[in-house]
Design a protein that fits this description.
CATH architecture of the largest domain: 3-Layer(aba) Sandwich
Number of strands: 18
CATH superfamily of the largest domain: P-loop containing nucleotide triphosphate hydrolases
Strand order of the largest sheet: 2-1-3-6-7
Largest sheet: 5 strands, parallel
Distance between the termini: 56 Å
Strand content: 5-15%
Length: 499
């Protein structure tokens, strides 16, 4: 039996049409009968169709032309052609036009049902692949970046605008600000999204192995080279190559990287032939490359090649309004992974988070959230569940270690209101009573902080096309955030950027 796939039966002979529809309906398909091409095209435009069984010789129409018209309306639709003629030319024409199968009359009903079953299985597989790709794009693309601060949105907005192009991008900013996550989002939103995303930390490669790691080597080219090996440029062919901490790249290798970018090809160590290596470059650094150029430690021609678009990611201390959103997300993620029943952060713990300067940026906030989830023995995270450095920093307000008072107050107020709305299912009257304020004032604060938009966006799928990704605290599918992906420090190839 089928899973209720939708099949069109297109035949100008009413008797044949009813017979085919009956056979397919008995197999569990949802069948729509169409007497001509116009009816079939209208049905395809009205709703999704998995398969169409089309007679080649419709009255006054060409079934092969109809096949092309159906594909123009719905590209993933599979078509099974039937005919009373045993013409090789017609069969070849139908298959060249994209027919899934070609059956001749008198029809073998078993062969018909097998053809339709195979056709609908292909459609379902293609749609599942498309759904998975969309899920990956949503989880790693710009819509999933968590944070509403203007400085972050400016950086993400610029990255989003240039993602569709093929130009190199240079991401700058302190360690832990999320450069690899943005690089992955650029890749996921580009025309190369179906290609590989290859990441390499230039600081983690010994200088004597850098050339082999980047460009590959031939067997016997040096001691220990027992076989041929492709380098990272080759691995990234057709996709994106992320060069993290590019400032650590040895000077001798910089010239060869420049040549590889210009030629879109590489020559392996010990080899004589060039190999295609067409990869888009996204580089990242936490240093000033312009200063290094002045010191003679970085090539200016390579800089101009990789910095066609330069994007500065702000440190967390400059976007403290995002701390509550990030902390809620990281805590929920850690609690779910560890199976801990933790409701959230207490107001006192959140105050500690907002008074801290976060020298390790978003990466440090995530690690603190994981730590708190592991040591917490209550329903909410209390100050005693935080690392000592946070408690000590929050206990010395006279030191210039945290954000501006106004930013911290607004961030805490935003979090308290969001937490209350979540706690009472969005009922503003109960949330206002819980917070000790009036519904009118609460409504003003909700509008001021855009909390209503955040909740609507999360219900609609986790943010608008601009990549806001604010996310509802109750979302079962937490979005990606502008932080580095999990992994061991310093292992950018499959892990976060270096500390």
């Amino acid at each position: 039996m089928s899973s209720g796939a939708h099949v069109l039966v297109v035949d100008d002979d009413a008797q044949v049409r009813r017979f085919l529809a009956g056979e397919l309906a008995e197999c569990g398909y949802v069948v729509t009968e169409c007497k001509d091409g116009a009816t079939a095209l209208a049905a395809t435009k009205a709703q999704a169709v998995d398969c169409a069984v089309v007679d080649v010789n419709l009255a006054g129409e060409n079934g092969v032309e109809l096949l092309r018209g159906l594909h123009a309306v719905q590209t993933d639709l599979q078509v099974v052609m039937i005919t009373g003629e045993r013409s090789v030319e017609v069969a070849v024409s139908a298959m060249k036009s994209g027919a899934f199968d070609y059956l001749t009359k008198p029809l073998d009903t078993e062969r018909l049902t097998v053809a339709v079953r195979n056709a609908t299985a292909v459609v379902e597989k293609e749609r599942e692949i498309r759904r998975l790709r969309e899920a990956v794009r949503d989880s790693c693309g710009f819509r999933a970046v968590l944070g509403t601060s203007p400085s972050l949105r400016r950086a993400v907005g610029l990255a989003e605008r240039v993602a569709a192009s093929d130009v190199p991008v240079l991401l700058t900013g302190e360690s832990g600000t999320g450069k690899e996550v943005i690089a992955q989002a650029v890749h996921a939103s580009s025309r190369r999204a179906s290609g590989p995303f290859v990441a390499i930390n230039c600081a983690a490669i010994p200088s004597e192995l850098a050339e082999s790691e980047l460009f590959g080597h031939e067997a016997g080219s040096f001691t220990g080279a027992l076989g041929r090996r492709a380098g990272r440029f080759e691995e990234a062919h057709g996709g994106t190559l992320f060069l993290d901490e590019i400032e650590a790249m040895p000077s001798a290798i910089q010239a060869k990287v420049l040549r590889a970018l210009q030629d879109r090809a590489v020559t392996r160590v010990g080899g004589s032939k060039s190999t295609p290596a067409d990869a888009r470059i996204v580089a990242a650094t936490n240093r000033s490359l312009e200063k290094m150029i002045g010191e003679g430690r970085f090539r200016d021609d390579l800089f101009f090649r990789i910095a066609v678009v330069s994007i500065q990611l702000p440190p967390l201390r400059e976007r403290m309004e995002d701390v509550p959103l990030l902390a809620e997300h990281f805590l929920r993620e850690a609690a779910e992974r560890g199976g801990h029943a933790i409701r959230g952060w207490s107001a006192e713990a959140m105050q500690s988070l907002l008074r801290y300067a976060w020298p390790g940026n978003v990466r440090e906030l995530r690690n603190v959230s994981v730590y708190a989830s592991l040591v917490c023995d209550a329903e909410t995270i209390l100050p005693c569940h935080l690392p000592d450095r946070l408690v000590q920093a929050s206990g010395t307000p006279g030191e210039a270690v945290g954000p501006r008072l106004e930013d911290a107050v607004e961030a805490l107020e935003r979090w308290l209101i969001s937490d209350a709305l979540r706690r009472f299912g969005g009922v503003q009257a109960r949330a206002a009573e819980f917070l000790g304020t009036t519904k009118r004032i609460l409504n003003y604060k909700i509008s001021k902080y855009g909390l209503g938009r955040d909740r609507e966006a999360s219900r609609a799928g986790g943010g608008d096309g601009g990549g806001d990704g604010g996310g509802d605290p109750e979302s079962k599918e937490p979005p990606c955030v502008a932080a580095d992906p999990p992994g061991a420090p310093g292992e950018t190839s499959g892990g976060p950027e270096g500390p």
